Amino acid sequence: AWVRGLARRGRLGAGPRAGRSGMILWDVSTGALRDAVLAQLAALPKGLVTDLRAAEFDGWSYNLRCEPEAPDKLHLCVALPKGAEPKGAAEAAVKALGSGVCAQAPAVPQGFSVALVVDLSKAPSDDEGRQQFARRVGSVRSAIAGAPLREALEALAAGGGAGTQAMGVAYRPGEKYFIKRGADSVTVVFPMAFKDANDGVIARTFLKEFSEARRAQALGAAPGVSWAPPESPPLELDGTDAPRGGAGANGGYVSFVLFQRHVGTPAKIEAAAWHLATFYGFVSYHIKCSKGHMHTRMRKRVQALVGALERSQIDYNPAKRGDKPKPKNLLHIE
């Protein structure tokens, strides 16, 4: 019941912390990268010797490095999950950060997928401008992970076009979501797979209620959301290599349908691309929260039952009842 209630109140939105519904909303900017950039900007022109390594959910990791001989050049390397590197990842990052501010590094270090060089001398001098600059650098994950979605949504905002077959985009090792362009819409389908069978059970309940929450009057302008059980994949997946039921989609299939009104501005496109690219992490987080909540409730219930049993014990006092006390330590001889 708690999972159903949480799903009914939830909705995708933008923001760096939990929304009014209490559901987590992933921040588009990585805090560790943002803080490191601000610290480096504050130390210019001398700069700081920086070698920051940070990891994020879904297997993403970063290396932010600044050498003493060039304090205004920030080297940013990004490692993506194996097999989940989108085509043109580096180009998408350069485009999002700005070609005048960012460029591809001459070589990509071993173990990383993208290497960039950020020119800190191009950052604004005022505090607010520097905050926005650091936030933009910290949003490199959104630029890379959302590139395939951004391309489809920008085409939709420009007027759509002819429909295409669903295209698979790898975003986790061995897992894909699918983008299908229509004449006036874009459909994004997620086969939800979980290693733990219990997570799959909770996910089915959560996602079913999540899709039904879309029917609320307050969410009438939101993108369409539908959920299909593992044994009934959506028709948009016909002709693709999407998993069919079983362990490949034990949480079912979630489909989002976006129209031009949902991508009317660049800000809407960025928000939609980011929320869709991190949807699996959004669901996984709330499944873990659900399990933690249920475990806590069960422990409290067990403690309450143990306390009730302890209070129900009757202290036996033979002196008060007039019973003769039983002899102790007597040797019985036949």
From TrEMBL:
GO terms for molecular function: actin filament binding; structural constituent of cytoskeleton. It is found in: Cytoplasm, Cytoskeleton. GO terms for cellular component: Arp2/3 protein complex. GO terms for biological process: actin filament polymerization; Arp2/3 complex-mediated actin nucleation. Coiled coil: none annotated. Pfam families: P34-Arc (PF04045). Its main location: cytoplasm. Keywords: Actin-binding, Cytoplasm, Cytoskeleton. It comes from the Eukaryota. Functions as actin-binding component of the Arp2/3 complex which is involved in regulation of actin polymerization and together with an activating nucleation-promoting factor (NPF) mediates the formation of branched actin networks. Component of the Arp2/3 complex. Belongs to the ARPC2 family. This is Arp2/3 complex 34 kDa subunit. The lineage of its organism: Eukaryota, Viridiplantae, Prasinodermophyta, Prasinodermophyceae, Prasinodermales.
